[in-house]
Fold:
Amino acid sequence: MADRKRPYVIVTRKLPDAIETRMMELFRVRLNLDDAAMTKDELIAAVAEADALVPTVTDRIDREVIEKAGPQLKLIASFGTGVDHIDLNAAKERGIAVTNTPGVLTEDTADMTMALILATARRLTEGVDLVRKGEWTGWSPTSMLGARLSGKRLGIVGMGRIGSAVARRARGFNLSIHYHNRRRVHQELEEELEATYWDSLDQMLARMDIVSVNCPHTPATYHLLSARRLDLMRRDAILVNTSRGEVVDEAHLVTMLQRGDLAGVGLDVYEHEPAVNPRLLRLPNAVLLPHMGSATLEGRLDMGEKVIINIRVYFDGHSPPDRVLVTEF
Ligand code: 8YV
Structure:
């Protein structure tokens, strides 16, 4: 490809070597080899010169950044599925296309959701800590008792790709599947999962042993699990979140755990990421992960390949396969 025809692509974080190498072959690229997250000024400078920007969840591409974009910026090809870090309306107004990488991190995120359900119900991190600290004095019939999964009810908030993948796994653990979603899913899927649909999130929350948050963060889902709704949950229930922290009122969640109004939480995401509420850190019944739900080698490669395809297809003059439409949110 002649250089003048190659789009100039700025990548905000270090990506897997194989992806960066392929990008170098296909585009004019500025990589970020030391992986330091860009400041707002650096993002503004990047959109002033790039034809395509490849950000991640750690970059806030807000209206202010988008309004500073030069006329050459045509595409924001995000490395990740969630697009809540990008102001989609501002991009649309400027005629800038936005793409993401859906589908390729479904299985990995669902695996991590199950891992958090198991770890929280069976007190995995408490057990690990006991052994590592040399404080384990031997087996006892009444120590480290958790909750049995088999036969319990799992309520999935958001039955999209990831929610359905969680449900399939959960069936293998003999959990019964319940869900709340904007729209009821197809009958075949409901039958396959033997899933019970709840139009009322309030009513579902009040009856579940385990609640899993699997919906995206949008203006409509911000604090969907509000203080009032969290208070509806059973005292012996657990909550896991591998989606976005903003969907849950985190401060109230912590207060409930401190008061013993909830049995435990498993969190991979936080409302003010990467800050983790210090009160959470002190709670033994909180299993806390550093936003690693999709962190597999295979997943990162697949995400990178999707980014490359979206850029190529767009600059070949076609609609990219993973174009995000504002109306979806
Ligand atoms: C990604 C995620 O790793 O894709 C998402 O929405 O939350 C993560 O698992 C991250 O977004 C990369 O930008």
Notes: The radius of gyration is 22 Å. Residues 297-315 form the longest helix (19 residues). The chain has two domains: 2-104+296-328, 106-288. DSSP finds 13 helices and twelve strands in the chain.
